[in-house]
Amino acid sequence: MTVQVYVVDDSAVVRQTVGQLLSSDPEIALLGSAPNPLIAGPAIRKQRPDVLLLDIEMPGMDGLTFLRQLMAEQPIPTVICSTLTEKGGAVALEALAAGAVAVVAKPRLGLKGFLEDSRRELIQTLKSAARSQPKRGPMRHDALTPTVPKGLPSGLHALAVNKPVVIGSSTGGTQALELILTSLPADCPGIAIVQHMPEKFTAMYAQRLNGICAIEVREARDGDRLQRGLALIAPGGRHLQIRKTGGQYFAKVTDGPPVNRHAPSVDVLFRSAAECAGKDLLAIILTGMGDDGARGMKILHDGGARTIAQDEATCVVFGMPKEAIKLGAIDEVLPLQKMTASILQFDARG
After folding, report:
1. What's the rounded Cα separation, in Å, for the pair 256 and 44?
2. 170, 183, 265, 272: which one is catalytic?
3. In the annotation, is 170 catalytic?
4. What is the pTM of this model?
5. What is the CATH number of the domain that holds 74?
6. Domain holding 238: CATH number?
7. Structural domain that includes position 61
8. Is residue 301 annotated as a catalytic residue, yes or no?
9. Chain segment 186-233, per-residue pLDDT in tens
10. Residue 122 contacts by C-beta under 8 Å, 6 or more apart in sequence?
11. 12 and 120 share a domain?
């Protein structure tokens, strides 16, 4: 079955180039294109595409407003095409929170050559998105300020053992992680996260989460201590590992080739956790395409770590959790809404 793609972008170069790129793959086709949402809206309501490739900054109506309208009516798997600018990145993250399933970064200059060089990745992203089940944002916290002070509060609990949590996610994971992290108290266990995301977007994503969470959230830096009340997100394009020294856990951020086609890779994080944490660790695998993290989760499970997978009903893409379950690597399969409670229950076991 051919995947039907509709492109909404005010650049004629983008529309033409994407059409040419899609024509090279027999499993994907250009259903249509439009320079703005005002033209695209009636067309896609008349003939619904399998996936939408959507620009953010366009005249008449911006892509974010259009996306929110579509998600309120009938969600369509949507891939955002955004520039690598601070403004473009921030709006792209808003689009992910609103229900977009993936972001494709594009430069300001050399766009045609960039798209051609990225043909394989773009086509794979569109195919993956077409198989997803987009969810509306579970909660919107943009206007809220946490009432709990960030970081670890003073008191006896500050001396509690830090049993780390590691989380891996991909397509649909930005929404899932937001729901989990915004629900955690300021003194939760330290968390190390790999979310598949383009380079330069992870720092903005972490900054956004930091503004709406009681815990501190930041992009991981080499040597960061994984302490209570802190979540570290792997930087795009680099691998994140954890290591243990003197009874404390630290982040190790390294360059390296993609693993399972990804940098950062969930498997890299999970394998490092298995080497240093063993049974004193909780590992969670969330929504995502492919099998990254499944083998690392199996190693963790066999070593005595507590392992949890997100269930199919709440996943945007039930790929990574499904593969981990098939390997016998999972202790429990849970809906997304129960992940926060599971983290706190694990922490309370002492």
Report:
1. 41
2. 170
3. yes
4. 0.86
5. 3.40.50.2300
6. 3.40.50.180
7. 3-130
8. no
9. 999 999 999 998 887 899 999 999 999 999 999 999 999 999 999 999
10. 18, 21, 104, 115
11. yes
